[in-house]
Protein: Invertase inhibitor
Amino acid sequence: MATVAPSELVEDVCTETEKLMMAYGERSGYVAKYDECVNALQMDPRTATANITTLAEISVQLAISCAKNAKALIENLLGNTTPASREPLQNCLSSYVNITGHFENALSGLSAGLQSSNFDIAEVLDLVKICELELTRNQTHILQLTNRNHYTRMFVEISEFLITRLELYHIGNGFTQTRTHG
Structure:
């Protein structure tokens, strides 16, 4: 499979996201690499021609998919786990139910109010941290879930960066919080 060069917008977003995360990596507990960001966004073919609004929507949609996959993984793990792992997995499941809801609210907010979208996105980091802390506290090591948490954090950072850029664009152009369609 041939790799497609990322668009200039994707390059910019992933470069800036990586820089911000290097500077503020302690906020989410990890730093997404440029290549991870590009590969993640390019999972959606619309990325190649997306403007910033569409790329924000794509990022949040990919985040929803990632969260739903993590939730399904946890449900599967709960069906075949030790008693010691059950409680942390149930807490992670609860977190991912909420994570999915926050991402879905953020997607809805992209067409109504960018500030509420950023609030919903920011809430996800705390929920991912809760899941990770539960796993660590109980010494439950599930690499697949740790990887899902990593990608969820990455989509938070990418989405938050894009939504903030959209907010700044709207403020700079005198737009209100409501996006016009057309």
Notes: The helical segments are 8-24, 34-41, 52-78, 83-109, 114-137, 143-172.
